[in-house]
Design goal:
Strands 1-2-3-4 form a four-stranded antiparallel beta sheet. It has a domain of about 100 residues: Nuclear Transport Factor 2, Chain: A, CATH 3.10.450. Strand 2 and strand 3 form a beta hairpin. The relative contact order is 0.13. The protein is about 50% helix and about 25% strand. The protein has about 150 residues and is an alpha+beta fold.
């Protein structure tokens, strides 16, 4: 029989390389989903947290109405207004970035840093949000770093 009519044998190295590349692509796809999905799930809560700090800085009394029901039950309006007004470094134009996001049992916990307007002092920020109806609302604000 003529060698020209014989099918060429595949190199095992070629199949090993293809398998390695295929597994690598699957790993990158999995990592993209594992990292991307939590960010997509928590982004609306991040947006609500940013809006909370902006709105409370502009009008703390009105922002009180946007707090979660348990927060309102535990904190009188006047105490919330005093809390906000005593912390202009967080509530008056601060740049707030969240370096940690966690979603557990319907509560999103965001942790990060508030940098005072003009690049001044920095303060730790921890805020928890819960979904009430279709909106994310602030359940707790912690500026102590704990």
């Amino acid at each position: 029989m003529d060698d020209a009519n014989q099918p060429k044998k595949s190199s095992p190295l070629k199949w090993l390389l293809l398998a390695f590349l295929g597994c690598g692509c699957l790993c990158f796809a999995f990592m993209g989903v594992a990292i991307g999905v939590p960010f997509m799930i928590t982004q609306p809560a991040v947006d609500a947290a940013q809006a909370h700090f902006r709105d409370a800085g502009a009008d703390p009394g009105a922002a009180y109405d946007g707090l979660a029901k348990p927060f309102q039950d535990a904190t009188p309006r006047g105490a919330f207004v005093e809390f906000v007004e005593a912390r202009p470094y967080v509530y008056k134009g601060a740049d707030i970035t969240f370096s940690s996001r966690n979603y557990q049992n319907g509560v999103v916990t965001l942790m990060g840093t508030a940098t005072a307007a003009g690049g001044g002092s920095q303060a730790p920020v921890k805020i928890q949000l819960v979904k009430e109806g279709e909106a994310w609302k602030v359940l707790n604000v912690d500026l102590t770093g704990s």
